[in-house]
Amino acid sequence: MAPSNPLSYWERVGDSFYRKVPVYDAIFDEDVELENYIVAGAPYGGAIALYRDESKLYRFQGAQTTKSSIDIYSCSGKHINRINWEYGSIRGLGWSDKEELLVVSEDGTVRRYFGLFGDFTSFSLGNGSEEYGVRACRFWTSGFVALLSNNQLVAVSNYEEPRPRLLAPCPEGEVSSWSLIPPAYTLSRSVEVLLAVDKTIYLVDPTEAEDKVLQNGPFKHTSVSPTGRFVALYTAEGKVWVVSSDFQSKFSEYDPKARTPPREVEWCGDDAVILAWEDEIHLVGPNGVATRYYYDGHVHVIAEFDGVRLITNDTCEFLHKVSDVTEEIFRLGSSSPASVLLDSVDLLEKQSPKADENIQRIRSRLPEAVDTCVKAAGYEFDIYWQKRLLKAASFGKSVLELYNSDEFVEMTEKLRVLKAIRDYQIGLPASYEQYMRLTPEKLIERLVNRHEYFLAIRIAEYLQIPADRIYVHWASQKVKVSTVDDEAVCKLIVRRLDGKPGISFELIAQTAFDEGRAHLATQLLNHEPRAGKQVPLLMNMEEDEIALDKAIESGDTDLVNYVLLHLRSKLPLASFFRMINTRPMASALVETSARGEDSELLKDLYYQDDRPIDGSNVLLSEALQETELERQTEKLHLASRLLADSKDATVVLQQKMLNESSQLLKVQEALDQEIAEREEYVGLSLNETVYRLIRSGWSKRAQKVQSEFKLPEKTYWWLRLRALVAKRDWGELEEIGKNKKSPIGWEPFYNEILGAGNTKLASVFVPKCTNLPVEDRIEMWVKCGMTVKAGEEAFRARDVNTLELLRTKASGTAVTEIDRMINQLRPRK
Amino acid sequence: MAPNSASDADYFRDKARKDLLALLEGVRGKKNVVISQDLAGPVGLFVKFSLLQEYGVDRVFLLENANVDSTQRNVVFLVHAEKARHVRTVAEQIKRLQRNGNVEHEFFIFWVPRRTLVSNSILEEAGIIGDVNISEFPLYFMPLEQDVLSLELDSSFGDLYLNKDPGCIFQSAKALMDIQQRHGYFPRIIGKGDNARRLADLLLRMRRELDAEESSGLNGLPARGLLPSASTESLIIIDREVDFGTVLLTQLTYEGLIDETVGIKHNQADVDTTIVGPGAAQESSKAPQQQTSKQGQKRKIQLDDSDQLFSQLRDANFAIVGDILNKVARRLESDYESRHTAKTTTQLREFVNKLPTYQLEHQSLRVHTNLAEEIMRVTRSDIFRKVLEIQQNNAAGADATYQHDSIEELIARNAPLKTVLRLLCLESCMSGGLRARDLENFKKQVVQAYGYQHLLTFDALEKMELLQPRSSATTMLLPTTGAAQAGLKTNYNYLRKNLRLVIEEVSEKEPEDVSYVYSGFAPLSIRLVQCVLQKPYILALTKGGSAPASTNTNAASTTSPGWLGFEDVVKSARGATFSIVQKGDDKAVRARQTISGNNAIKTVYVYFLGGITFTEIAALRFIAAQEALRRKIVICTTGLINGDRMMDAAIAKGGFAKEE
Fold first, then answer.
1. ipTM
2. Closest residue of A to B115, CA-based?
3. What is the reported pLDDT for B290?
4. Distance from CA of B409 to the nearest CA of A (A)
5. What are the start and end residues of every segment in region (Disordered) (chain B) (predicted)?
6. Average pLDDT score over chain B
């Protein structure tokens, strides 16, 4: 192939060059009258959607074509799909960066077509769009804004879970043009809209509409540059202004000297503005310098972030700024090292010694030259020049001792992929930079959407990207189109996908189910390794029992709860219980969630399960939640009644205690009425009741309660002791001390009374603690401050050492007393 | 795989912080944050309130208080999505704000740790799913210390053993998957207990599912971790159920006792200001809840390794805490005095430079001295001593019926219900249930003393298998029968002998065995871990009679993996016993082994499912110190637990009294 001149199509605009690369020719049939169509192109060289512009008159072409439809073509003009459209007039046609086609109709219905073949989801814009109607829409890569005819703006920023949101209300008036700044490029991180109303422009975000106070409107066109930094305005006087997006500074002005305003104003990269008339394109660079292109037919402009695609019936061209590296190499008279390196390859092939001379000359900057050549290869569309540049890089690299070839290798990989997808059969003319932004994964997705499975798999393998999605898509497609019986399809799919990692059979099964092939879906699901994944589909398929089992198998409580929630609302109670009965985890979860929220369900459950104690406990906890005494007793009675017929020992005990509890409440109620000023006793425990009665001096009543409830003697004594100490009723305590025996011994009396500070009374109990060792008793005396008594104790035990110890602690007369005792014990001395 | 140099604790702390801040950043402008109680504390572990403020958080509300107002347009909910109750509360509050709002609110929900299907359907039912922006905050492990990771699931104990809700097992598995994805698969999973087995099964299943998903790009992770880890030795899972007994004992380390007396939550203790004095210039930034709970009476004390003194004290037996405090006090004093000896200006400057550290130390010394005194007051009390005596007798395996009088006395003296129940449960756990007649008797006394609502409490305790009548089957579990009836119940009597749980002569000062944490009783859970990690030591301990030197350098026999050598003994503890090897691609494993070398110190993850006590942490640290040359131990758990919290799960709320 004869090398084309790399400089062909270059056009100087101011300081930089632009070039228009023809990518494809013979795009559309002659009978497609492009001027009558609205054209929307997906970003990164994606598909093109054509829709007949309703405002234009056109030749009648037979009944068939009067049906309106949206046609999807590849950039090379290959017809991909036709979507019949009978849902009213289309007010917005755009693409997301996932190559989903969005169609907004006048009444605010949005359809999102994914996968290029007519699958869609839809949602409504709401917010008054039904009443006022949608006027127009502007799209960015992951969302869009719709302008209603009452000048309200509705933004959707996420298609997965669309949440149409009203932006700040904007002023009345005729909107002459508008545009948006994508959220990624605004300070507020939400989408902002430029609305040209009357003479000025408003900047509208979710919270406010700010008047930018301009005088030169109405602006027929407003257009925001891809990075949101600049805005191009077409003024009332027919001039193009480029201003900063905060409207603080004006960068350039250009007068196209045209009588009619251009049809479209778009940005070509971030530096130049395209003005498009029917058959004429003006490229306006910085400082208002411009160049013009003329066409024979109608030309459509599709903006990309690094240039524009120009579509006519005959050609698809890519107009973009010549990159710095390319310019450095190819510009006439360039003497940059990279350019010299490229020359050297020619010389080398001619076996001229000058090749080496050249290399030596640029030796010091050789690495840089190699880098430049590699980069430039990426920007080149022509395969000849790609090869040349890579060859130059490879030559330069071979001279260098140390050079990291990673970039070189990667570039060759990328160029191979690009070559494959740019082929007219595929028709994805992505530029190098677009491919980088798109990422290989998304690229494969696009290929899959076009059903180019083979190429997709080859690329995935080449780039070592997981290919499972491709297989899944293929299998789903197979399920959709195949007409053979379920067994055969399943077998075919399983055989093909055998051993491929990460295959989601659940997705394929979902497709099968959606296609109405439930049996096939079940069969496919059996191959899904992830239990959790199967659950939602199984529920859709009404395979409730299997769904529940799979959910339990996954161990994910959320899934189980989810299935249970679903079953509970769907099944009659009896079958629901039957379902969970044999599954302990499920019934545990049902019990847990019912507790405190749905006690009726619990009661039913326990009744069915024949668990009387559990059932009565539910009633008991309900009783606890009641505030009225009658209601409490009532619930307690019910709880007790549930246990009535049983002979089981624990049940009998339980019932007995329940009865006791209502009995206690009754007693307490009576106490409250008879002796308390306000409610004092109700709600206390039995021990507390007795304690309080004694403390308040109602010993008789306390005794009565004790006997009525068979309170153990020991407990009663403790309560009496503590209550009397708290009451400081020393007399009564002393009286008790006269008893011979105490079921709890006398030590507690000593301790409690001493703790309350009455050493005198405490000491009374010391001699009664006969069961304690002498040392303890001595200690007790000492604690009461009665050293002499302690001494006597020691004396009785004939413990001289302790006595001497005591002597050191003693004071006053006690000293002599103890001395006397010591002497008595040591008579011989 | 590149070696991960940062410790797991740092990694998870950074990740959690980054994730949360990124989410907050996604909400433009000022916002009010509503946080559920069970998250407020944990969030404080990795992010300071001042930092939240920098990210536009204006005020923080507690979900439970239901008092969020309309002062900000943006309202962010940070709530656990696993609990339907929480989700419903969120839905209610959003609806309330929508109704009475003259402000058009923008709602954001950050579900922790994931967006659940149930939450979706609840919001859908409430009709608000379209009005809220929902994101996930995948918060699983939170670092308490460098060696302790916790899920901080307060309710996990009750969920797991009372409600039999395995939700926290699933969350544990997810959390452990995080670790596996970071380091590679645990080459071996060893465990004890039925729930532990369930967790291990889940881990295996998740690994299979991840393998299936790995290459599909669905999870967005690069294909890594397909191999068993080279830096990890094993994962040891201990189900709490295996050893309830340990938790029921009163913890006797300093940190454990603080937990018993004051309570430690998320590394913080609420201490009465009368004890520790008012906080000097409280940092306003400590925890978000400080904004909302204004109870001037309490002061939050941070208890972690940032406090040098505390890190010395925390794992020591309380008996020697006084000594340490004295020593530190004397050292500090002499350090202070050094200013007099400072002659040259450089010396003086040195001293002045150190002043802030001295002051900090001084402050912490004062706090801990006061705290220790307060605890001392408790430990000296009659009731505490009585309780301890009963516990020790039970632990030592003395005939429990002799303790019954003491327990009855405690009931009559109105000792705290939890204390009484702990003793009863302890007896039941240690000796395989109470005699039916005794149990009946105690039941009666407890409901009479503390209220009839505790019929529910007993029911719950029985469901948790904490307090049961001794069945005919379990009477066979008396010491003579050994390892019969394996797996149904932990047979402490058998294990006490065969794992030497009770060590008579224990030095609290220079401990030689983990039993120091309970002054003579070694937690069974820890002995089990030792059966895996310190085989020779345990063998010597049980066979040799005399305890060998703790620094056992005989590493050769430690290589026998899993339960090997102890299979029979371990059978007497409750639940499944397992040791699973996770195999990977052999060639790759070998290749990696040659790269990394075999002698590197490997990490052992010890996972306590259902909660861990501070004493067990102390004991594990004790082991870790002995093993420092061979391995690193990272402790993971669903949350911290003690006997009181265990009882909390069971004790019936409410009573018959009217609310006043």
1. 0.87
2. A558
3. 41
4. 7
5. 279-301
6. 83
List the domain boundaries for chain A. 39-166, 375-609
Last residue of a domain, one of B441, B475, B509: B475
Quick one: B368 and B411 in the same domain?
A: no
Split into its structural domains, chain B has a count of 3
Q: CB contact, 8 Å: A160 with chain B?
A: no
- Return all residues near B52 (Cβ < 8 A) that are at least 6 apart: B24, B33, B60, B288
Confidence of residue B285 (pLDDT cuts 50, 70, 90): very low
Cβ contact B445–A682 (<8 Å): no
Q: Is the pLDDT of residue B536 over 50?
A: yes
Q: Which domain holds residue B106?
A: 8-139
What is the distance in angstroms between the Cα of A469 and the nearest Cα belonging to chain B? 7
- Residue among B166, B216, B656 whose CB faces A683 most closely: B656
Answer with the residue of higher pLDDT: A59 or A777: A777
Angle at the Cα of B171 (from B165 to B175), degrees rounded to 5? Answer: 160
Which residue among A555, A584, A685 places its CB closest to the CB of B202? A555
A39-166: CATH superfamily: YVTN repeat-like/Quinoprotein amine dehydrogenase (2.130.10.10)
A654–B450 CB contact, under 8 Å: no
**Which residues have a Cβ under 8 Å from the Cβ of B145 and sit 6 or more positions away?**
B9, B304, B305
Smallest Cβ distance to B117: which of A558, A660, A684?
A558
Q: Count the neighbouring beta carbons within 10 Å of the beta carbon of residue A288.
A: 17
Q: Which of B80, B106, B139 is the last residue of a domain?
A: B139
What beta strand segments (E) does B275-357 contain? 298-302
Residues from chain A that touch B205, judged by Cβ atoms under 8 A, are: 531, 554-555
The total number of residues shown for chain A amounts to: 829
Does B114 map to a domain?
yes
- Residue B224 is predicted with a pLDDT of 45
3-state helix, strand, coil in chain B (%, to 5): 55, 15, 35
The span from the CA of B369 to the CA of B49, in Å, is 29
* Structure tokens given for A699: 């010993």
Contacts of B653 in chain A (CB under 8 A): 624
Per cent of chain A over pLDDT 70 is 98
Structure confidence by residue, pLDDT tens digits, A585-637:
898 888 888 887 788 888 888 888 888 888 898 989 888 888 888 888 999 99
CB contact under 8 A, B408 and A529: no
B292 pLDDT exceeds 50? no
Contact A504 B382 (CB under 8 A): no
- Residues B97 and B120 occupy one common structural domain: yes
At residue A679, does pLDDT exceed 80? no
Task: Please provide the size of chain B in residues.
Answer: 660
Measured between beta carbons, the chain A residues lying within 8 angstroms of B215 are 466, 468, 501-502
* B478 or A331, which is more confident: A331
Distance from CA of B245 to the nearest CA of A (A): 25
Which residues from chain A sit within 8 angstroms of residue B198, using beta carbons? 555
Alpha carbon dihedral B215, B216, B221, B223, in 10-degree steps, equals 0
Q: Which residue has the higher pLDDT, A413 or B102?
A: A413
Assign B384 a pLDDT band (cuts: 50, 70, 90): very high
Instruction: Note the pLDDT tens digit of each residue in B598-648.
Output: 567 889 999 999 999 999 999 999 999 998 888 899 999 999 999 999 999
Q: Both B330 and B409 in a single domain?
A: no
A712 has a chain B CB within 8 A of its CB: yes
Alpha-carbon distances of A785 from A778, A803, B328, rounded to whole Å: 11, 15, 37
- Report the residue of A205, A505, A561, A744 to disrupt the B interface, i.e. the one with the largest count of B CBs within 10 Å: A561
pLDDT at A66: 59
The b/e string for A32-65 (b: 16+ C-beta within 10 A; e otherwise) is ebbebbbbbbbbbbbbbbbbbeeeeeeeeeeeee
Cβ of A555 within 8 Å of Cβ of B216? The answer is no
